Amino acid sequence: MRSFTILWLGQILSLIGSAMTWFAFTIWAWDVTGKASALATISFFAFLPAVLFSPVAGAFVDRWNRKLVMLLSDLATALGTLTIFLIYTFGELQIWHIYLVSILAGFFTAFQYPAYAAAVTTMLSKQDYARAEGMLGSARALSGILAPVFAAALLGVIGLSGIMLIDLATFLFAFGTLLIVHVPNPKGSAIGLQSRGMLWEEIAFGFRYIKEQQGLRALTVLFMSAGIFLAIGATLMAPLVLSGTENDESALATVQSTGAIGGVAGGVLLSLWGGTKRRVLNILIGGAAACLLGIFWLGVSHTVLLWAVGSFFFAFFEPFVEGGNLAIWQVKVPADVQGRVFSARHLLVQIPYLFGILASGYLAEARTIPVVLSAAGIIGALVFGAGYFFREVHDVETLYPDAQET
Prior knowledge:
Elements: H1 2-33, H2 36-52, H3 54-63, H4 66-90, H5 95-123, H6 129-180, H7 190-194, H8 199-212, H9 214-244, H10 249-273, H11 279-300, H12 304-316, H13 318-332, H14 338-366, H15 369-387, H16 391-394, H17 396-399
Helix pairs in contact: 1-5, 1-6, 2-5, 2-9, 2-14, 3-5, 3-8, 3-14, 4-5, 4-6, 5-14, 6-10, 6-13, 8-14, 9-11, 9-14, 9-15, 10-12, 10-13, 11-12, 11-13, 11-15, 14-15
């Protein structure tokens, strides 16, 4: 756990810097356009390349040194922030610049996700997978607590350029911690050796593996179905608050920070407890609760205090959902093919999520944001609840053997 903890500490600081920058971008884009669709488009472009290139990235992650992949992807993301800083400082920043850098950041995130997820598998024992995800979830949530508060307080003092400089400084710290930790290479497995071949064959292997494993295929379908509604909740929170408070940055910071507190609470609880013995229950119960107590609650609320409550519970259950899901995949998939399999799953799950992001802004402008959020919360909860009645999902941990047992 020592090396993982060092890596985790570096990620906390880096995530705070990145979250401060994206909070500042959100405020800037809303001030310039005043449209929910603009914020949705930024999120869409950040997710699009991360989704489309993930199978290719996964194949390379299984071929290359995973630590090197993480270093290079972090460096490239920092260069994107540096580019926006230079344009903003010496030129005239426009909304399409944000779109372009969002695409760049998303492209390198395609390499970050499978590399980090697969690295955890080789650094820790399987008993610690859920706890590790709880620690990573609490790191993401902690950045959500501090970043909006810091960014809202500092925007008027140091401006957007100052926020981006802070982001670049935190990157240097995280880059340094990654340099000093040891990330073991995975041991070869029979299926890993058999799956070697041309690049396109290795990419196809990830999808074929999921298709042939009924339990993992069922989990993928569940997350594909629920992802649309989770995306709507995540995307419309900022325009909901800004439109309801006359663009009050402090109100948005309060709601987002309260949500992040919920994420930290959920992540800490998961890291200490480890979740239920049957991890799939973390997914089903946590997902339904996030939709009802989070997304639906946001839709029916009308004050900053109540929005903060909904934001809290939306984030509180996320570590349980993601931690339970990732722990199942880490146990069931051989370590030396996880890059390809995880990336294939990422593509399949994130395509509906992307649709939810893009559609949310236009749905909100066609209807109203509260109506769209309320409907998304109810339908999302029904999707997670339905998973309980499908044996392939409900009994996925016992129906199918662990990777080391095959």
